[in-house]
Structures are given as C-alpha cells and as structure tokens.
What we know:
The chain has a single domain, classed as Alpha-Beta Barrel (TIM Barrel), CATH 3.20.20. The chain is globular. The chain has helices spanning 3-11, 16-28, 69-74, 118-127, 148-159, 184-202, 220-232, 268-282, 297-306, 315-320, 323-338, 344-347, and strands at 45-47, 50-52, 56-58, 79-85, 98-101, 106-109, 134-139, 166-169, 210-214, 237-240, 261-264, 287-291, 308-313. The longest helix is centred in the middle third of the chain and has 19 residues, at 184-202. Strand 9 (210-214), helix 7 (220-232) and strand 10 (237-240) form a beta-alpha-beta unit. Helix content is 38%, strand content 17%. The structure holds flavin mononucleotide.
Amino acid sequence: MSVFDLAGRALRHMPAEAAHKLTIRALKYGLGPVHTGADDQVLRTTIGALSLPNPIGLAAGFDKNAEAGGAMIRAGFGWVECGTVTPLPQVGNARPRLFRLVEDEAVINRMGFNNAGLAQFKRNFARQKLTGGMLGANIGANKDSKDRIGDYILGLEALWCLPDWFTINISSPNTPGLRELQGRDALQELLGRLMEARLRLTGKLASPPFFLKISPDITETQIDEIGNAACHYGLDGLIISNTSIARPDDLKSRHRHETGGLSGKPLFTRSTALLQQFHQATEGKILLVGVGGITSGKDAYGKIRAGASAVQLYTALALQGPSLISKIKRELAQILHANGFTSVTDAVGRH
Ligand SMILES: Cc1cc2nc3c(=O)[nH]c(=O)nc-3n(C[C@H](O)[C@H](O)[C@H](O)COP(=O)(O)O)c2cc1C
C-alpha cells in the first residue's frame, strides 16, 4: 500500500467534502502519486481524434475547477474530464450535500454545480501540465440562468482552443430542470445551437470532439430520440452515464434516502445496460463512453464489451484511493490479452 493510499484512508475518516477539498489542494501543490513506467501497449486507444495511452478516464466532478487535471494524468489516468463549469461562479446546494454509502460502495451527491465559474476555470486549465494523457472540459448551465442553452455556448466561446474535448452535461439531477434538455424538442434546439457555434468558432480548423453526457434515468423512447439526434447533428460521442435518482431496493447504508444522484457500484448494471442499448440503437455510428460503478478491470472490460470505446470513473477512486488506477489498468490489460485481443478497439461491442 502506498503512502497515498494511507493518506486516502485517513481522509476517509473525515467528512466527505472536507476530504475532497484537502485532496484537491494536495494535488494542486504537487503532492500526488506519480505513475511510473509506460502503460501496456494493449491499452493504447483512440476515441475519435483523441489518442489515449489507456482508456481509463477520471469522470467529471472530481476536478470541478481544473486545478488538478494534470496531476491526475500523472497519477495514471489516460484522460481526465474537468468541470462541470458554469459561466458564473456558483456556491451549489447547502451542506451536507455529499454522502458516502460505504456498505454499498456508493456515493450520493447533491452538490449542485458548485464551481468557481468560467474565468477561473480557464486560468486554471491553461496552467495544467500534461504528460501524455488528454484533458477535457465539461460545461454546464447556471441554476438561475434565463437562457440555459446560451450558457453552454458561453462555455464553448470562453474555453475554445483549450480542452482536448468538450462534454455537454445535461444530466445532472441536482440542477432543477436541467435534465429536461434531454427531451426531444429541447435537445434539438440545444444541438442545433451548439453545432452552429462550433461552425462559427472553428473556421477552417478542426474542432475538438463534442460529447453529450446523459442520465441513466431516461426512457426507452429517449434512447432512440437521443441516439438519432446525436447522429443527425454530428455529435462525436455520448457519455453514459451521470448519477441516478433511482434507488435500488438492496441499498444498505443509512444515507440511502438522501436526495441527489447515486453513483458507484449500484449504478453499474443500469448504466452498462443503457450503454449496450445505445450501442445497438446507434449501430456504432457514434462513439460511446461508459461510466458508472467501475471498480475493477473486469468492470471496465464489461463496459468496453457493451460498446464503450473508453471509460471513466469517480466514486471507486474516492472510496479506494489512487492505487486503484494501476490495478484497473493491470487487470484490464490481462483480460484483453487472455481473450486474444490486441487492442481495446478490437474488444469494443464484442459481446
Ligand atoms: C461528488 C460527485 C460530483 C459529481 N459532479 C459531476 C459534475 O459536476 N458533472 C458531471 O458531469 N458529473 C458529475 N458527477 C458524475 C460522475 O462524473 C459520474 O458520471 C458518476 O459518478 C458515475 O460514475 P462512478 O460510479 O464511477 O462515480 C459527479 C459525481 C460525484 C460522485
């Protein structure tokens, strides 16, 4: 066990949000783990135009203000998504708003897009030093915004040319009404305006990929609607999924009835099934990223076989500490070799 895992154990005795704040501060000042040695070649992969040393990504929410993305790539992630950032700074919901469900290997959060706003995010992001991995920006809308779609456009305009990709987050359950942007008409308006902005901002240059992050709580009809709209408007990918407002019956923790989004192990089955449904619905026309409940290389492999070109995680890292990153990469490489795959790409959607 590394000194960082020991520190992680100590942090897990602190209230969850205070522990997270301390972690980000330590990472910002260079006190994070450093992954040494190259990743197994079998893990090298691409998602669209992005070339990754490994497919294991850090999901949005860990580094909301782009203070520690570079440090998390040095810790071993192949790609790190910073944000969600909103145009204006926002304090988020009242505390407590982050709960560990230790017995369930899960978390419930109702943070509510607490973040320092686009201007600070941009300064921080520009300072990140990268060593091989990719760094993206996840953008959102302010709670009190009069034009939520306009907020996403502001995000694109402010950060254009900085991140390796943009994720449009319309699936947080903690900003009232945000998930309504997943409805058919609202989604068409959103994607139409985003693609217009993309064309205007790009000029003759290539645009970074645009991913749309969706909720696990959508209906069957919405799977088709979102899949069709994504293909029609030329989105590059879908990130499946954000946290869930559903509560499986077998949760044990005393915090299980807290309001907010559930993440971690209990989300794995639902988010992976949804990923597979999207893979079928979109017939491989659009790339998919699998997120939700990954705790092992086997879980990452499960998402890849269900159709994910790459994966992301957050909760298991918060509960288990940073040695999890190497463990997942080692296990995934072993499974890929054992099943005769020479690359991650070969295994995508091969169920
Ligand atoms: C404390 C916390 C904060 C989060 N904040 C965001 C966020 O700001 N934007 C976002 O797109 N997803 C956010 N998420 C969702 C994660 O990115 C991820 O989609 C979800 O937790 C499922 O993955 P996991 O089970 O590996 O954690 C957050 C999750 C947690 C636990």
